[in-house]
Every structure is written in C-alpha cells, then in structure tokens.
Amino acid sequence: MVMHLKRHLVCYLLLLVGNYSPLFAQLADFTHHDFSKADSIAALYPNHSISNLNELSHKLTSTLNTDVQKFRAIYKWVCDNIANDYSYYARNKRMREKLNDDPEQLEEWNEGFRPKVFNKLVKEHKTVCTGYAYLIKELAYFATIECKMIDGYGRTAQANIDGEGIPNHTWNAVKLNSKWYLCDATWSSGSITLERSMFIKEFSEAYFLVHPVLFIQNHYPLDPKWNLMDHSPTLIEFLHRPLVYKNALSHAIVPHSPSVFKPTVKKGEKITFRFRSRSEIEKIKMEIGYGGKVNSFYPVVYKDEQGFYCIDHTFSAKGMYDVHFIKNDDYLFTYVVKSEK
To answer: For the domain that residue 323 is a member of, what is the CATH number?
Structure first.
C-alpha cells in the first residue's frame, strides 16, 4: 500500500507541475471583474423569503447583463443570508461517519434528513452544505444558468486527514461563458468553530469561481471529472496531501513538497518545503509546535531553478512536529513532520 501510494504521488507531482502553468502564468478569468453592482443588488434583499425562488432570482438578476454578474448576485445573496446550522452540521457529520461502511443505512439516513434540512432552510434561513448547494442551483436555474450540485470530500483539520476518506460535503459547478467553474457557498459564507460550537459568518472570495488547481487542495468530488482538470490526483493522493486552508487559495499559494501531510525526516538532516505562489513572496512565517511549546519565526525564503519558493529546516530532536506556514497572520498550510533517528 505504501509503495503504491508513493508511485501515485510521484506521478501526481509531475502532473501538478504541468497544471501550474495556467494558474501562475495568468490571473483567474474573473479576477478583474467588478462585482460591486451585483453585490449591491444582493444587499437590497436581506432575509428575503425563499418560498418563491423564481421571484427572488428575478430580483437578483433581472437588471444585470451577463451570466457572470447574475451568478455573482445569486452567490453573494446566498452567502450573506444563509447560515450554516451548527447542530445540523454536527448531527450530519456524526451520522455520515457512523454509517460510512453501511451504504444502505447511510442512504436511509440521508433520505430522512434532507426534508428536515430544506424545511429549516425555508423557515429559518439555516442549513448545511446540501442546502447551500441546492439553493445556488435552483436560483441559477431560474436565471437560465446551468449549475450542478457536486457531492464529495471536503478536507479540513477535522475531516478526511489520511485514511480512505468519508464523503462529507456538497458544492456547485456552474457553466459561464461555455466553461465550467467551481464554487462553494458553504465555505464562502463563513466557518464552523468546534471550540465554540457555532457558525461564524464572514464572506470569503476564496471559493468563488476558483481555479481547479486551487479548489482541489481541499475538495474532491465523487466523480473525478468534476475536478475539471486534464490530470487530477487520485482520492488517496488527495487524502494524504498537506492540509491546505482557504487563505492559501486567497493568496493563490499551493504547497508542492513534501507531497504528504505526514513526512518523515532524519533527526539533524535538512528538509526542504517547496511551494508555488502567483505573487511574489518576500517573507512567510513558520510556526512549529512540539512538546506543548510553539516556536514562531521568519525563515529564509529562496527560489530554486524550477521557480518554487523554498524553505529549509532541520529538526534537532526526534518527535512529532506540527508545522504551519503563515502569511499576513493567515494560516496557509500545515504538515505533521516525524523526526526520527
């Protein structure tokens, strides 16, 4: 299994280098779009009823000229007006994990849970990821924009780290200007904090029509064609890669190597962390946790011949180290490094 995984990871690294060129040679298709009008229209209808989605879609899109602008108004309204319900999130997560090895029981649970999700969505403007994706799809439908719900694996600090994975998330693919794009209104709308058992609303651009090379850092569809990449990693490769946060997507920063979340290094030997960035990197902070202590510092950052940003580090003692990379106080990606004799 280990050798099989390593062979796949080597192939994936070669493919990923090829996929970097469109990402870093040019900006994303909509980076320079001005969405201020679409956003202002979305702001005109706070807490609007969703009992008539045709009416709401018309209000959000009828004065806009392009599908891109129309979809932005829909997306922004959903993110600003729908909350991720923590109690439903926790219940859904618990049951999906419990029934993961029993597809029939899981489907039975889903069938019974969905009506409750949509009832809460309509009555309280609260839901889980399925409700977000459904609402985006239906509002887009009434604006004659082709949009699909995509089920798959969402990767966070609490989910789908190593192992074989548990399908736990739903997002959207939308067709604009004859091209498919990916977006995740659930994660754009805010975040669940397990420490405080609540949802914190804070809009993020990180998951709006993002490049597939970035999106796949923490999303993997049940049907790999919805990776929207000519060459995409396998599910096992996805589950074992470094943990990447939304701020990495915002900054368009992608870790390259080590290619796994839990690399092993010899005590006293140098390990080199490599990553790509669409913009120039002058400094980046490392935060290393070990034995209950945290050490933060700014290491030397340099570029290698392939254009990767590189940071060298040596672990002087054996043990497990949590290694975080941070830019402007934003956590980008994380490794757990094992230093051994």
So the answer is: 2.60.40.10
Co-location of 129 and 278 in the same domain: no
Q: Are residues 273 and 127 in the same domain?
A: no
User: pLDDT tens, 54-88?
Assistant: 999 999 999 999 999 999 999 999 999 999 887 88
Residue 214 is assigned to a structural domain of this protein:
yes
Closest by CA position to 133, among listed 146, 150, 158: 150
With a cut of 50, list the residues of the chain below it in pLDDT.
1-27
Domain-located, residue 29: no
Could you tell me if 143 and 259 lie in one domain? no
CA dihedral 69, 74, 79, 83 (to 10 degrees): 180
Q: What pLDDT score does 194 carry?
A: 67
**CA–CA dist 160, 158 (Å, integer):** 7
Residues of the domain holding 176: 36-240
The residues, any chain, with a CB within 8 Å of residue 241's CB and separated by 6 or more, are 217, 233, 255, 259, 260, 261
266-291 in b/e form (b: 16+ CB < 10 A) is: eeeeebebbbbbbeebeebbbebbbe
pLDDT at 304: 94
**Number of domains the chain contains:** 2
| Structure confidence by residue, pLDDT tens digits, 146-183 | 999 999 999 998 889 988 898 889 999 999 999 999 99
Q: How far apart are CA 228 and CA 212, in angstroms?
A: 6
